[in-house]
Amino acid sequence: MRVLVTGGAGFIGSHTVDLLLTEGYTVRVLDSLAVPVHQAGVLPDYVPPEVEFLCGDVRDADLMRTALYDVDAVIHLAAYQDYLTDFSKFFSVNTVGTALLYEIIVKEKMPVQKIVVASSQATYGEGKYVCADHSASADDSSNGRSRERVVYPELRPETQLKRCDWNVHCPDCDGAMQWVPTDETRVQPHNQYAVSKYTQEMLALNLGKRYEIPTVCMRYSIVQGMRQSFRNAYSGVLRNFTQRLLAGKSPVCYEDGMQVRDYVYVGDVARANVLVLEHPDADFQAFNVGGEIPVTVLEYAELLTRKINPRLGPQLPGLYRFGDTRHIVSDVTKLKALGWAPTRAVDAIADEYIAWAEEQPGLRDYYTEAEAGMLARGTLRRAK
Asked: 32: burial class by Cβ within 10 Å (0-12, 13-18, 19+)?
């Protein structure tokens, strides 16, 4: 079986390619090798020689037609992600690129049997919360107690963030709410990347159903592991904190560092991709792919500090990312029902990543430059 992996030279893509080859698949990769994730046009040495490689953009119709020729399935991982304000590019790459994929398959009557599409936990925005103090008006007749009110909050207003009030408040009683794990039921994207990923999902699932092309969308939590680009400011705290600490600098935490996330190992993500590719019960659905264990940003910074340079401590300079989510942890019950489970917690992920990072040539602190750029564009702001 021949599988096309778009974005297959990237972080998640390369691990997925490795697993596909191990499982006996023939693999073709389409990747633009674009900065900042890659050195422009340079194929990473971890891409196996047995892979058929095409260099180019998923929006190039002729190239996409060539890439799709004679393939049985597609794992569509190519995406644009950053904190930049070039809003149209998010939709051009993520949404229009996906539309082109289906357009060519339908027009050319290509016998593609399955498409797995990379989406994101970001589609949930703030996700699911409960307010224990402000109970729902209806009683739970089974136990005679009033139910906690479930809320899917809007974006926190900037006037609130400017005064360092980081909590998510109940829209009725204004009390601070408690996050709970977010399942696949409801999405509420807040930023350009999240909206582009959800429109990509809607397009893929609906066109897949209409034209009988089995399609699955994967909402990844924060994916971590080796091969995570040093040059991409979007790629998360493990990358940012590790390179700072290895350069003898303190990790920088936004807000108060108490933001809660779940982190999932890239090898577990690759297993999830291949599982849904092979499992017919996954068709025409979206699945969370997460690490289950909630970890605060500050806890992660302290963990890495202990491992790399205990003399340093995390910095809390009062910065916040405009439009960022306060807390989000994915409920992975649905994917686990297919036989998948996360295998590595952050401690083991960090050990592997640090060992890999220390061996990389030209490693330096990219964060300082990225921070200056984000401040200049207003994507990173200072509380007053």
From this structure: buried
Statement: residue 11 has pLDDT above 80: yes
Region label for 208, one of left (φ > 0), alpha (ψ between -120 and 50) or beta (otherwise):
alpha
Q: Which CATH architecture has domain 2-125+182-382?
A: 3-Layer(aba) Sandwich (3.40)
User: In this predicted structure, what is the pLDDT of residue 147?
Assistant: 67
How many angstroms separate the CA atoms of 286 and 162, rounded? Answer: 36
H-helix or E-strand containing 218?
strand 215-220
Question: CB of 323 within 8 A of CB of 191?
Answer: yes
Using the predicted structure, report yes or no on whether residue 138 has a pLDDT greater than 50: no
**What mean pLDDT is predicted for residues 145-158?**
84
Distance of CA 245 to the CA centre of its chain: 24
What b/e readout covers 1-11, taking b as 16+ CB neighbours within 10 angstroms? eebbbbbbbbb
List own/partner pairs for 143-152 with CB under 8 A and 24 or more apart. Answer: 151/177, 152/125, 152/126, 152/127, 152/128, 152/186, 152/188
Q: Where are the domains of the chain?
A: 2-125+182-382, 129-180
CA-wise closest residue to 236 among 271, 200, 267, 266: 266
